[in-house]
Records
---
Amino acid sequence: MNNQFSRILTMLRKERGLTQKEAASELGVSQALLSHYENGVRECGLDFLIRAADFYRVSCDYILGRTPDRTGSTITFKQPSGKEAPRSSVHPDKQVVLHSLNIIFSLLMQAGNDTVSDNAVMIIMTAIYRVLRMLHGGNQKNPKDMFTVSRSMYAAAAQSCSALAEASGCKAAGRLKADKDNLLLISHERLAEGYPIYAPRLMQLIDTVERRMQAVISAEQE
C-alpha cells in the first residue's frame, strides 16, 4: 500500500463523521488494526480493501490513490489517430473544463439524488448546446435545419432552461438526507484533499468565471 491509502481511508471516515471505533465495527476489524491502517503502520489485505470501498461507496482505485475520481472513472481526451495533438491545437482551458467535470460528476454521485443529477446535467448540456450553436452560426453555409429552435429565440430559451434547472436542482439539493450532508461539504480544503489532481483546475475555473462576472457587474453599474 502507499501513503495515499492511509490518507484517503482516514479522510473517508472523517467525512462520514465516524470515530475509529465506529468505523472499525462497521468494517469488521479492531480499532487498533484500523488505526494501524490509517497511520500507515500496517498494510491491509484485499478483503478489507473491498469492504472499505463498499462501505464508503467509492472504488478501490480511489482508496489506493490511483485515480482522483471516487467512482474510479475518468474523463479523457484522445486524438482519433491515437497521437498526441500538437500543443498549439489544444486549447489551454481544455483540462480546466475536463478536470472540473470529473469533480462535478463525482459530487453528483455522492449526492445520490436523481433530481439534483438530472438538473445539473441539463445545465451542462445546455451550455454545450449554446457553444455548438455559436460555432454553427459562424458559417452561413451550415444547414439551417440542424436545430428546431430558431436562432432568434434559442438564446433566451436556453438561458431560461438553465435557470429553471438550477432552481429545481437547488430545491432538491436542500432536501438531501442528513446522512449525506458530510459528503457534500464543499470547500477549498475538502476539494484539495479529495481531488488533489483535479482541484487546482476547478479553482482556476471558479476564478476565471468570477472575474468575468465581476467585469460584467461593474460594466452594468457604470
---
Amino acid sequence: MRPISDARSTKPSPMQPIISISNLSKTYANGFEALKNVSLDVRKGEIFALLGPNGAGKTTLINIVCGLVNPGTGSVTVGGHDIVADYRKTRSMIGLVPQELSMDAFETVVATVSFSRGLFGKPADSAHVEKVLKSLSLWDKRKDKVMTLSGGMKRRVLIAKALAHEPDILFLDEPTAGVDVELRRDMWAMVRSLRDTGVTIILTTHYIEEAQEMADRVGIISKGEIILVENKDVLMRKLGKKQLRIELREPMATLPASLSSHGLDLAEGGDALVSTYDASADRTGINGLFQDLAREGIAIRDVETRQSTLEEIFVGLLEERA
C-alpha cells in the first residue's frame, strides 16, 4: 500500500533525510528540560526505532516533529520544510498513532477514518479508505461503533486514521501497548508492508524485541539526550556479546588451572562451563579453549551459544551513563 498522492512535487531524494533535527532543546514551563541539543536524521523509507526509559524524551520529540508541542531552540525540517514556517505542509506529510486510545466511541470505524482524511483537506476517497481498512483487517468491522471494539482493534483504527490522508511518514508511539501477541505480530507485518511501499516509520516502544524484530536503525535516548544511533545489525555486532555454555558429562568441583586464562565461570552444580566473549573480535579464543579441554580429558555432553539481545545492550548503555 502506497498512500501518496501524485499531486506532491516536493519530496526528499533517496539520499536526503526525510526528517532532520538539529540542536533541538525543549524546557517546559515548570523547568523540566525534556530535550537537550538533540540532533538526528531519519532516512526516507526506513524503520527507525527510538528506545528509552519513561521520561527520556521520546514522546516530547515526536510531538514536536508532529507539530503538537512547540519547539524550544533548534530546528526541525520534514521533507526539507521547516515545521514552524511550513506547518501545514509538514503536518500533511505525517501520520501519528499516539499512545492514548482517543476516538469518538459512538462513531463507526469507516466514518472515523473518513473524517480523519477530511481533516487534512483531502477529498473523499472511499476506495483508499477501503484499502486501508482491508490492510488492517478492519473491513468486516467498518460499520461497527468504535466502543464495541477490543483494545487491539481500536489501536488498528488509530493506525487507519493516521494513514487516511496518505502520509509519507508514520509515527508509532508505543503502537502495541496492551495488544496480544497475535495482534502484535500482525502489526509488525503491516509495518513492514508500509515500509516496502516507501513509507518512513518512526517507532517508539517498550518492547525491545519489537525494535530488534523490525527496525533498520536504532536510536537510544536517555534524560533528553540521544546517546547512540546505529544500524541495528551493526549495533548487535559492536556491542553484543555471545555466551558459550559447555555442558559436561561429569560435574567438576573447581576449574583446572590450565583453563584459568579463558575467563570461564563454573555453573552452579559444576555441570557446565560458561564463557562470555566478543563475537566480532578477530580472535575469540574458542578454538584454544576446546583444545585445552581435550588435553585435560574433560568430556563434553553438549555446547550451546547465545547472543546478547538488544534489550541487554540497551540496559548496558544506560547503566554506563548512570
---
Amino acid sequence: MKAKKLLAAAVAATMVMSLAACGSSNSTSEGSTSAGAEEGKKYSIGICQLVEHPALDAATEGFQDACKEKFGEDNVTFDVQNAQGEQTTCTTINNSFVSSDVDLILANATMSLQTAAQATGDIPILGTSITDYATALGIDDWTGTTGVNVSGTSDLAPIDQQEDMLVELLPDAKKVGILYCSAESNSKYQAELFEAALKEDGIEYKEYTAADTNEIQSVTTQAVSECDAIYIPTDNTMANNTAQINDICLPARVPVIAGEEGICSGCGIATLSISYYDIGYRAGEMAYEILAEGADISTMPVETATAVTKKYNEANCTELEIQVPDGYEAITTEE
C-alpha cells in the first residue's frame, strides 16, 4: 500500500465515524424517553452560513430537512443568516444567536465555526462543511472529539484519491500549482496532504495563495504561466470565483482538479465528490441527539461521508481534449 494511502487512512481513522453506520440514529433506543416527544417542546436553532454556494446551500438544506423530520416541523424554528464571506459578519451573526439564547447553532463552513466557538462555550455548536476540526479549532492532540461544545460533520474527501485522479487524467503533468485562499486554514491543510501525495509520485508542485478575492486574477495568471495543472482544494473563496478562474485557466489550456463538485463545475475537469446534503442531514440528526436525547456534544465524534464519486466537467474536458476513462460520472447542472 502506498504511503499516501496510509496517511489518508490515518486521517480518516482519527476523524471519522461513518455516516452509514449512523443510520440507526433515526430511531430512539428502546426504553429511552425523548425530550423532543414532550408535548409543546420547541427548539430554536441559529444557522450561520458563510456564503451562498451550492455545496453550502445543500448542507443547510439537509440539516433543516433532518431537523424537521426528527423534531417535527412545528417543533423547530430556524434563524438562517448568510455572512456573505465576511468574518466580522460571522461574528455579529453568532453573537446575535447567543444574545437570543438559541438552543443550538449550526456553523456552515470553517469561519462560521471559528466565530461561533469564540461567541459561546455553552450553547451546542454543530459544524458542517468543515474539512478539519483540529485545524479549525487549534486542537493539537486530536482524538476525533473536541472535548468542548462543538461537534459536527466534515467534508473531507480522500485527498490521496484526488491526486490519483490527477495522475490518471493528466499523466504528462510535470508541475502542479496548488491554488487556495491563505485566509482559509482548512485549505492549507488539504494542500499539504495533496503535496505529500504529489511528492510521493515525484511530481513537482508550488503553492499559489490569494489573501482575498482581489488577488485571485493575478495569482491564477501566475500559476497557469508556470504549471501544467492546478489543484484547488475545498475553498470558499475560490468557490465563489470559479468563473474568473475558468476564464484564465481554460484559454491557457491548464486543467484544474477540484476539491469539490461546485468548484469543478465552475472551472475544473474532475473531482472526487461527496454529498453536502448528506453531511448536513447527518448534522441535523446529531442536533436531535443533543437536544432531544441528551447526547454529550463534547464526546460526539466528528463524522464524515464515506461514499465518494468520481465526477467530471464534460464541457471543460471536451475543450481540453481530455479522455475520461470509465468510472467517472458527468456533473449535471440545472438549466
